[in-house]
TrEMBL record:
It comes from the Eukaryota. Its main location: membrane. One of its GO terms (cellular component) is cytoplasm. One of its GO terms (molecular function) is 2 iron, 2 sulfur cluster binding. It holds the Pfam family Rieske. This is TIC 55, chloroplastic. Transmembrane segments: none annotated. It is found in: Membrane. The lineage of its organism: Eukaryota, Sar, Stramenopiles, Ochrophyta, Bacillariophyta. SUPFAM superfamilies: Bet v1-like (SSF55961), ISP domain (SSF50022).
Amino acid sequence: MNAEETLQEWFPLSFQAYLKQDWPNAVLHMGRPLVVWRSAEGTWFAQDDMCPHKLAPLSDGSITATGDAIRCSLHGWQFQGCGTCSMIPSLPANASIPGNKKYAVRSFPIRQRGDCLWIWMDPSVPPDENHPRMQDASWELKNGYQRELPYSWDFLFENILDPTHVAYAHCGVGKEFNRTEVDDIRENHVTNLQTRSNNLGVQLKFDRTINGRTANETWDFLYPGVWFLRRNTSETGPAGVIVASPIDTNRVRIMSGQYNPNPPPETKKKQSWKAKLQRQIFTVVFHRSLNKFFNSDAFLLRYPQDLIAAACSENSNPLSHYELASPADQGTVAFRRWHRQRLGGKLPMANPSLLPKIPRQIHCRTHGRTTQQQHYYDTTTGGGFLGTAYAILQQLFASISHGTTGQCGIGSSGSFGGSKVVAGS
């Protein structure tokens, strides 16, 4: 499969609650700097984060008062959601805007399903509007957990499809994994593991015993980045859902939301301040626990990735470096073989020359607004009770101010696939 065909998919981009609703957002996706913004009508757009005039980042600009275009902060050029240039202030009053495509910005189709935004990364081909993720109501994921992790997309899913690492790598994270003796850990073992794969992804089926109780589990990975966990085939719907997409070759954005196979009719109810407070308390506690979970094996995954990259080309098959002795390693083998056959061993990334070379530790000039958002991890880790309380109050104030109940003002691990920016005075 060539690089263009691998891009002809709906990639998960972000939960909308992690993006500013009235200001451009700088988002790095598959090594490509994007600007993601929302029109006054509530439609989301994604474009190359680069004004064609003098290459200034559009994410440092603003949305027009009418809410139907994005304005470059360098010379005021304006671009509609389709990418067409609609305003060049320096042109004479009687001059028309050149219709040449070179004056437009490249736009990428983006769709909102529930609270999750999905992006089509090959705008030269019409997006597949009949794709299950665009048609099936059960894909309307609700706002949940989101952050970036310091290792690649393929190492994330290789690890997710390795069921036996959990009791060791995440030992002590929660009650289910609170084991210190090897014999106790061995109770959490996997048997009868079977794998199968096709062009769409990889599936694992196995029996897992935890504290003397055995359950049948099915794990599904679907390209370009969806993982389902189902326990006991008689149950309806997955017990866990993770979607993820690559930021660049060394980072991945991970999202975990509420997946409902039988969504009820949507009803809009105005929430009381008590309901908002309860939601924010749950959100902060939920984020703290998941941050602890993913932090516990982050180094263990980035370390082998760097070793393999240093030893040979980035397209090397990690299986040639591993010594796999257990039947439980079948998931690792199945994913890596699929990864090589389906993607040629790597995902296509944008040209590194497109990436900004200077740090964006600068003050935002426009209304003192920040062009990046801050992750819960920055405000809740190490703060104990006071840190948690402060984070809850922050998010409650944001939700009331914006009239939302999602996690407003939350980004990914200090920066959203870019660099940190601090507000001006």
